[in-house]
Amino acid sequence: MKQLCESVGAFFGVFFLTLAFCGMRIGEATGLQWADVDLERRRICIQRQVIWRRKKDCPAGEPRWKLMPPKTRAGRRVVEIPAALVPFLVAHRESLRGPNPLDLVFPSQAGTPLYPKNTRRRHFLPALQALGITGIRQHDFRRTFIALHVEAGTHPKLVQERVGHSSIGLTMDVYGKVAGRMMLAQEQEDRFAALAARVLPAPVPGEPGTNSGTDPATNTEDDPAKNSDPQTAG
């Protein structure tokens, strides 16, 4: 993340950081307006996304893009802005120049929403190629967001609400895979050990010579008088 964001410049560096640290979809980030961002309280209210239409589906005189509400109720949500990201967003807002009639957080040079295919082709992929990284999509920033929360120990249900998944199963598909590859933190190991100790039975003191689990008072294997046939003994 650090190398990628440094290589694409300040504007797209903040754009990618926002995707990764706030768990937003591409259309949600490109449709984000400054009125949705509360830097003092460190909150982003996600209430719209940008939808791109085919040229033949656009009425004459209308742009290809359209601002729409999220597809599901889960998509309309509030997410936290990590404190480390706030200075970057402040500097980004102060550096914006040019037309921006929609007051977009990440406007194009023409003041319209960013076109994801152009962002991918002109900035994202060249940066990955320069770093020798393959097989990564812009959408995978949402997986980065989940992975960071897995390492932070955030409950899966809280992660689900922040990424806007309508089902916990979608979140767990990523959460479970990442968590399964991680070592338990020392604090987690200590908590588990403490819980395990509460349910263990008290240890039974052992006696010398009883390692086999056989009662020596009834063991006749080593007593020839008890093991022999009484008709042939003597």
Protein model, in words:
There is one protein chain. The protein has ten helices and five strands, in the order αααβββββααααααα. By secondary structure, the chain is mainly alpha-helical. It has a domain at 2-135: hpI Integrase, Chain A (Orthogonal Bundle). Strands 1-2-5 form a three-stranded antiparallel β-sheet. A two-stranded antiparallel ribbon has the order 3-4. Helix 2 (9-22) crosses helix 6 (141-152) and helix 7 (156-163) crosses helix 8. The longest helix is centred in the middle third of the chain and has 16 residues, at 116-131. The termini are far apart.
Which stretches are low in confidence, meaning pLDDT under 50 for 5 or more residues running? 214-221, 226-234
Strand/helix succession: HHHEEEEEHHHHHHH
Strand order of the largest sheet: 1-2-5
The radius of gyration computed from the alpha-carbon positions, rounded to a whole number of angstroms, is 31 Å
Reported by name, the CATH topology of the domain at 2-135 is hpI Integrase, Chain A
* Number of H- or I-type helical stretches: 10
Determine the structural class based on helices, strands and strand pairing.
Answer: mainly alpha
Envelope shape: elongated
**Whole-Å distance between the termini?**
89 Å
Q: In percent, how much strand structure appears in the residues?
A: 5-15%
- Largest β sheet strand count, sense and barrel closure: 3 strands, antiparallel
Helical content class = 40-55%
Number of strands: 5
Q: What CATH architecture label of the domain at 2-135 applies?
A: Orthogonal Bundle
Task: Tell me the name of the CATH homologous superfamily of the domain at 2-135.
Answer: Intergrase catalytic core
Average pLDDT: 84
Q: Which CATH top level class of the domain at 2-135 fits?
A: Mainly Alpha
